Amino acid sequence: MLTYTIRRFLLALLTIWAISVLAFAIIQLPPGDYVTAYIAQLASSGVDVTPEFAENLRQQYGLDSPIWVQYLKWMEQISRGNFGRSLEWRAPVLDMIGDRLWLTMAVSVSAVLFTWGLALPIGIYSAVRQYSIADYIFTFIGFIGLAVPSFLLALILLYLGFRYFDANIGGLFSPEYQLADWSLGKVWDLIKHLPLPAIILGMAGTAQLIRIMRANLLDELRKPYVITARAKGMSEFRLILKYPVRAALNPFVSTLGYLFPFIISGSIIVALVLSLPTIGPLLLRSLVAQDIFLAGTIVLFLGIMTVFGTFISDILLMWVDPRIRFERRE
Question: What is the model's pTM?
Answer without folding.
Answer: 0.76
